[in-house]
Structures are given as structure tokens and as C-alpha cells.
Amino acid sequence: MQTIADGWNEGNARKSADGFCEDAVYTEPPEKQVYQGREALYEFFGGDAGTEIPMHMTWHHLAFNEEEQIGFGEYSFRMYGNYHGVVIVKIENGLVKFWREYQYQTELNWKEFSKLNSF
Question: How distant is the alpha carbon of residue 9 from its chain centre?
């Protein structure tokens, strides 16, 4: 998860995309964003040309159920706006097979956003 975020933060689409299975499915339900396959994700993450403006991803909490190979991460992401959200992943052979994210756009920073329930 950190390698994917590092790739985004570095503007390295290949580094991020390589954290996903060849046939990965990346969604923001219900169908706000849908990407299928590592190469589609590579292009979504900026491809060879990079992104128009930098991406910035910070994980706040990560948890993982080793038996089920399912994990989640609470994050802040900035690019064309400022977002806080949660992503749930299913891992297969050490790579992300499924990525499902829920996010909220706000100008609040993480501390302000989570101030009533901060931990």
C-alpha cells in the first residue's frame, strides 16, 4: 500500500501500477471511477507523460486480515481537490486484485476533518 502511495507521490505511474494484478479492478462505487487491468491503471496514474499536477497520498491507518487477504486504509489524497477516504483491498499473490474506495471531498485538512473522532 505504501509503495502505491509512494509511486503517486513521486509521479511514478509504473511503480504504483506494478502493485496491482494484471487483471485488477479499481472502483469508486457505484461506478464513479472504474478501471480494469494494470495497464489501464498505469494510464490513469499518469502513464509515460505523468500527471498534469502532482498527486499526494498519505495513509492514516492501515489494517490487514491475513487469513482473508483483505485490508483497508484510511487516507488523505490531494490532486484536483482535497479528499479523505477509505479504500478496501483484496490481495492476490502479494498484489492488489480489487481496490474499492469511498472518499469525501473537502478543503479541511485531516486533523480538522477528523477532530471529533481523532485517533
Answer: 11
Query: Rounded to whole angstroms, how far apart are CA atoms 59 and 13?
Result: 18
Q: Which domain holds residue 90?
A: 2-117
Residue 67 DSSP SS3: coil
Q: Return per-residue pLDDT of the chain as tens, 119 residues.
A: 999 999 999 999 999 999 999 999 999 999 899 999 999 999 999 999 999 999 999 999 999 999 999 999 999 999 999 999 999 999 999 999 999 999 999 999 999 999 999 88
Record the pTM: 0.93
One-letter amino acid of 63: A
**Residue 15 to residue 7: CA distance in whole angstroms:** 5
The C-alpha atoms of residue 10 and residue 61 are separated, in whole angstroms, by 21
Domain tally for the chain?
Answer: 1
